[in-house]
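Quick one:
INPUT:
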């Protein structure tokens, strides 16, 4: 596996979340992308089109982007996982991202996430 390719995909993801770059997700997300928010013991699901609509519906936050890649691992050159936090004020999210290699590039297939902290003290 080329770890720099996976890291580049993870960094592109963080940048796109923080700066509301739907066009990045259009390319980065697999056509069968599925996103799951886990909150208060419940799960809420979005597909790629729903997620892109959410991103297009908000403004970018001021630079610099606030995120932290906690870990990355892969199984061969076909699947990989990235664990990170990214700020979407007023919240910090903890994301577990599942990637698959398609046509020579990493595509985001799954996102399971939760709110890990409030940034506004509430």
């Amino acid at each position: 596996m080329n770890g720099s390719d996976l890291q580049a995909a993870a960094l592109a993801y963080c940048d796109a979340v923080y700066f509301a770059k739907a066009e990045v997700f259009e390319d980065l997300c697999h056509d069968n992308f599925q996103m799951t928010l886990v909150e208060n013991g419940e799960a809420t699901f979005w597909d790629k089109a729903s997620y892109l609509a959410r991103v297009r519906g908000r403004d970018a936050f001021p630079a610099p982007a606030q995120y932290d890649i906690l870990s990355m691992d892969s199984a061969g050159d076909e699947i990989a996982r990235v664990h990170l936090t990214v700020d979407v004020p007023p919240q910090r999210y903890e994301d577990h991202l599942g990637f698959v290699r398609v046509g020579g590039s990493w595509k985001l297939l799954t996102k399971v996430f939760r709110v890990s902290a409030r940034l506004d003290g509430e």
